[in-house]
Amino acid sequence: MLKTIALIPARYAATRFPGKLMSRLGGKTVIRRSYESAVATQLFEDVIVVTDSDIIFKEITACGGKAMMSLKEHDCGSDRIAEAAERLSKVDIVVNVQGDEPFVQRGALEKLLAVFSESGGQSIDLASLMHRIDNPEQIDNPNCVKVVVDIDRKALLFSRSRIPFSRDFQDAIYYRHIGVYAFRLQSLLEFYHSPMTPLEKAERIECLRYLEMGKNIKMVEVSHMGTGIDTPQDLIDAERYLATL
């Protein structure tokens, strides 16, 4: 059986919403809710928050959780968890559960992990989640990363722009990328030891580096998993969503 762990990258100084992981959401911090949601799935041999912040470290350890301090600065979450993965005992699959995704659900993660054991799974380097979107405001919002896939649901491109572009004004299907990944450890470490690539620099989307390196990314469609928190408005939307649970 593949040894699977979850690592949660948690940077304090987020560009669009500084300190968002320590913002309160239904009486708990965002990062604590993300950590507890990952633990509650019972899918992982270990769940660890990896952070550059003493504040976040203390927040997790104070509630009995596990956290690690990064040893150096990182440009993206994959680099942060890769550094941590190198310091841990042998693992096969590393799941990156974003610290600003407090509503991660077991069913979605089960589908994500199943990619590696199904037919053709040996050729998959990493897998990630997406859900269909129809709201024009989301489709055109640069904070909403879109993904297009081939007939086998392998990623072709990620972008903050509207993709695909519907030239003839016909209906097109749009998918929002959910920043939850499952990596084969070797692929994660190869990413970590490779320089930032041109598309990644342009879009500031880390998974573009995997595509530019020729990695196979299998996308798994799920229903909407609540609200990821990138902006103050997202936090308001998350409060509303939490009230419906």
Kindly describe this structure:
The structure is a single chain. With 245 residues, this protein is α/β, with parallel strands linked by helices. Helices cover 32% and strands 23% of the residues. It has 9 helices and 11 strands. The strands form 2 sheets. Strands 1, 4, 5, 6, 7, 8, 9, 10 and 11 form a 9-stranded mixed sheet that branches. Strand 4, helix 2 and strand 5 form a beta-alpha-beta unit. The mean pLDDT is 91.
Core attributes:
alpha/beta; nine-stranded mixed β-sheet; 245 residues; 32% helix; two-stranded antiparallel ribbon; 11 strands
List the helices and strands and how they pair.
Layout: E1 4-10, E2 24-25, E3 28-29, H1 30-40, E4 47-51, H2 54-62, E5 67-69, H3 77-87, E6 93-97, H4 106-114, E7 126-133, H5 136-140, E8 146-149, E9 155-159, E10 174-184, H6 185-192, H7 198-203, H8 207-212, E11 217-221, H9 232-244
Parallel strand pairs: 1-4, 1-6, 4-5, 7-11
Antiparallel strand pairs: 2-3, 6-10, 7-10, 8-9, 8-10
Helix pairs in contact: 3-6
Rg from C-alpha positions?
17 Å
Main beta sheet: strand number and arrangement? 9 strands, mixed
What percentage of the residues does DSSP assign to strands (E)?
15-25%
Structural class: alpha/beta
Order of helices and strands: EEEHEHEHEHEHEEEHHHEH
Number of continuous helical runs: 9
Average pLDDT score: 91
Low-confidence stretches: none
Measured distance between first and last alpha carbons: 34 Å
Please tell me what the overall shape is: globular
Helix content: 25-40%
Number of strands: 11
